[in-house]
Structure formats: C-alpha cells, structure tokens
Amino acid sequence: MALPLALGLGSCTKEFEAINTNPNNATTANPAYLLTNAERANIFRLFDIPANQDGGELIIQHWAKIQYTTEDQYGFRATSYQSIWDGFYAAGLQDFNQLIAIGKQTNNPNLQAVGLVMRSYLFSVLTDLYGDIPYSQALRLGENVLTPKYDSQEAVYTGLLADLKSASSLIQTTGGGVDGDIIFGGNMVKWQKFANSLRLRLAMRIVDAKEATAKAEIAELLNGTTPLMTSNADIAQFKFLGSTPNTNPIYENRLTRDDHRISRSIVSVLRRRNDPRLPIYADKPTCGDSAAFYRGVRNGLTTSAASALGPLCSTSKVGAYFLAPTAPGVLQTYSEVLFLKAEAIARGYVTGVAATEYQNAIKASMEQYGITDAAAITTYLAQPNVVYNAANYKESIGVQKWIALFGQGVEAWSEWRRLDYPKLPVAATPAAAAAGKIPVRFRYPANEQSINTASRAEAVARQGADLITTKLWWDKL
C-alpha cells in the first residue's frame, strides 16, 4: 500500500495497541481539537464526490447524472479510487488511531473507545469498497511500513468485530464524556449504543460467508440487555453547522455544479407505493411539462442522451433536505437497527415478530424525516407491495432498507450487494469494464499496483481479478 504516511495495524486489539502506539508522539495534539477535526473531515470525505455522490449513490440508483455522465455508466476515474484510499488511510485512520493512543496514555477509556469505534467504521467502509485491504500492518506510527500486506476481508471483519466489542466494554457511561465530539456531544451512552449497533451491522454483513460467527454475534447483541439504538434520538450523525468550512459536501458540490438528479429507479419505487418520502428525497422540476410531477433520470445515459431530456430545470433534483449546508452526515440510523433485528428474527437467530420490527423500521425512517401522521403511516404499511412477506423476507427488507438508506450511498450499496434487492437495471450504457453488470466493488488505486506490487498481487490472487465485477468475500449470493 503506497501511502503518504507510514502505515500498519494489528488485527487483534491487544496486539494492535502494543505494537502500533508510539508513546513519544501520541500526546502532541490536543485531543478535543483532533477529534472534532477528524469527525468533520472524514464524514465529509465519506459523503463527498468520489465515494458517495459519484460512487455509491449512482451505483445504487438513488441518484443519476444529467451531465458528465461517465461515472453513471460505471466509468470510474482512477483519481477517485486513489483519493478515497489515500484520504482515509493517510488522514482519517491515523487521526482516530492517535486518539486511541492518547486515551490509553491519559487513562481516558472513553476517548479510547470513541477512537476505536470511528477507526472501525472507516476500516469497514474501506473493506466494503475494495475487499481485501491493508489492516494488520496499517497505521504503525513511527515505523517505516511503506508496503504493508493486504489482509483478507474475513480477517478484517474478525478484527473489527473484536474492536467494537472492546470499545463497548471500555465505555464508562457514568464517567465524563469526551471533549470535541460533534456526533453525540460527548454522550457516552449513545456512543455505546452506536458501538453495539455498528457491530450488529457488521455481524449481519458476514452472515452468508461465516454464518456461525455471525449468528453468535447477533444473538449476543440482541439478547435484550446489550445497549443498542432505541429511537431516532440515537442516530449517529455529524451535524454540519452550515458555515464554511463546516458545510455538508453535497451543498459544497452544488455551489459550482448541477449534474446530479434523482434516479428514475427510486422515483418509480416510491411512486408505486405512494411513499410520503418522495417529496423529501426529490424536488419537482421547475420548468416544462414535467413540472407537475417528479421526473427521475435513468442511470447510465450518455451525455447526449441526457441532454436530449431537455433543459436542466425539467428533471428532478435531489431533495432540498439533502442539499442544505446543514444536512447531517449520517453514519447509522435507528431504522437500520430495526431492519437488522427483523432479519435476525426472520433467519431464526433470535425470537420475536419479524413483521413488527419491519414495520417499526419503516415508521422510524419516516419519522426521521418528520413524517409523523400515524394514519398515513398505517395506510402505507397496509399496501400489498409494502406488507411484510415472510416467504421472501430478503425482498421485503431489501427494498424498504434501500429506500430508508437514501443518501447513505456506500451503506446502501453494501446492503444491496448482500440482500440482492431491489432488482435494479444495469446502467443504460455501461462501460466495458462493467461487463454488463452493476459494479460490486472499486478497483485498487493505481499507486498500489506500481509501488506496493507484491502485496496487491497477493490480494488479487486470493480475492480474484482486480475488477469492479469481482465479488467481495461476504457477497456470496
């Protein structure tokens, strides 16, 4: 892995802390300032153009492009692969790793836990984008590990699940919080819920690849005593203030660009269900014959085909809620946790009523956006194309989760790859690299091939060809 900074990481938490902490440098930064900056910069990066706006959101067909349509045809730029990789490895992971070290040195287990949760989150993003990644030899402070090995995705997930369990056990909910935390304002009860809820997400992610491990993790997390998110007040999100440089990256993009639109795919699904989230997810066109209704754009149009749709004002933009400078960067929602619980029940891992949790998940998603009319929600849930189907729980959960994850492009893409619902069409004009399929991963950055040649080659030999059509370890079906 060719990186601007020396890297490395231990897949076992205790070994990692012993090997990868530089006691001479850990306290050089003010932890409150470091935490604030790390949260802001990395959540901005997650929702910025390469990973989210021109990545997950297009692939998963929440958004489409009306201009500069290359990425919407799966023609991803090499610079995008590189910027995601370098940004998280050289900055985000390093920052949270340093916070873990400071927490240990200053006897602040809560700070250590916050660093562990966020480091785990970013590693999970990287492995779900690329597959096998540098992990056990990443982030070694003070060591010249310039070409670390790639760990299998299975090993990465094993390490992340252990780290999140460790983070939850470290948290002292009756002690002091952590300064500089924008996500939860230093509330360690909410951090503990997030640690466990994120662990539930990752455990479910590997259910088709390593069911015994996943089942045990899920049963432990859903035992009724482990703290998980219990309402929308527990949503893990970064609240952008709306003033430069603390503004949502989508707003920043719209200051100079206007090339994204709502996808026809999600407009069709929402319209067929009379979904009250449609006017939140999309705006009506402001000109032309289509101004009276929502007009989504088919994914993968050529630039000329997109231009033929008419003036820019004749198609639906992404909803104003998501374009606001203060729009939050959402990491995990209460709705998602309920969908995970519904699936665990459907699979027989825990007891309960899957249909009830499914309905509660949809309700939580709606309430997240201020839709609180109980009668309207009840009517929505009673529709034949919304009612929970126990015979095909993956379809019921997959479609509604895809709707609820609107705006969270990377996570929505991961869950679509795992559940295989909804059934989405391939882009209208897919790039040759996609082989007529929807992409299931990003390619490794070019610098890895030229500098970290041997490590990358070993990963490719194990995982499969470095193509956007090569499935990840957990994507079995």
Automatic annotation (TrEMBL):
It holds the Pfam family SusD-like_2. It comes from the Bacteria. Keywords: Lipoprotein. This is SusD/RagB family nutrient-binding outer membrane lipoprotein. It comes from Hymenobacter persicinus.
